């Protein structure tokens, strides 16, 4: 039942995001591949092939989110059925609590938390009206309170903990609507953020997000945090 479904992948033109876009297109979804630069999205769409449509989207700008969702409607003639909030930044330097780089903290939260929230606000009401939706938030084990044992990457960690909280709240609000909301940790994956020595390739990193984005009709998996398709402690 993936045909006729439309997915929006934020940061979908490179890193784990382009692999998520590719795998969703392979499963028969129409995929809106979003990047801050339209040319980057167009280039990614050429490599993915038919079913991929380029979109300019900067999740740190409310105006860009509004314009992108309007453009998505014009391109597809419909709404977004599947949202993958993949866009993310990791900006921390060496500072650890109690020291704080406020600029880094705000910029990180603006993309990793508020960005995901902004895009959800723009597309989830349409999912609720349609009685179908899948929202996947790309998080990290670094955001797990249960596993939090140091202050390395503090802004990044806090942003993903907050994104996890947003995932739980949104899932609770949407219970029974047909919209399933989950968080996916791709694991340490080779990409711009993960670097070249990460043990996992993009295909493996994209697996859990794509699984959650394509949960079949009748599935009631929602409000969860998963890595390797298995639950991870919050
Ligand atoms: N790689 C890992 O080991 C790892 C581990 C755990 C979690 N994650 C999470 O997985 C997700 C993807 O990470 P990645 O490894 O693929 O990172 P990456 O290679 O650094 O790519 C980051 C992506 O985020 C997009 N992005 C950044 N700021 C944006 C903004 N303001 N608006 C829209 N898009 C923006 C970029 O889009 P542009 O093309 O426009 O620059 C790019 O597509 C992130 O949420 C990350 O936190 C990654």
Describe this structure in words.
- The two termini are 31 Å apart.
- The chain has one domain: NAD(P)-binding Rossmann-like Domain (Rossmann fold, 3-Layer(aba) Sandwich), CATH 3.40.50.
- With 234 residues, it is α/β, with parallel strands linked by helices.
- Helix 5 links the parallel strand 5 (133-138) and strand 6.
- The protein has an 8-stranded mixed β-sheet, with helices on both faces.
- The mean pLDDT is 97.
- It is built from 6 helices and 8 strands, in the order βαβαβαβαβαβαββ.
- It has helices at residues 15-26, 38-48, 62-76, 102-130, 154-173, 202-213, and strands spanning 6-9, 30-35, 52-56, 82-85, 133-138, 179-185, 224-227, 230-231.
- The structure holds NADP nicotinamide-adenine-dinucleotide phosphate.
- The site of NADP nicotinamide-adenine-dinucleotide phosphate (NAP) has 31 residues, from helix 1 and helix 4.
Jot down its keywords:
6 helices, single chain, 234 residues, alpha/beta, Rossmann fold, eight-stranded mixed beta sheet, binds NADP nicotinamide-adenine-dinucleotide phosphate, globular, 16% strand, 42% helix
The top-level CATH class is Alpha Beta
Beta-strand residue percentage: 15-25%
Please name the CATH architecture: 3-Layer(aba) Sandwich
In DSSP terms (H or I, runs of 4 or more residues), the helix count works out at: 6
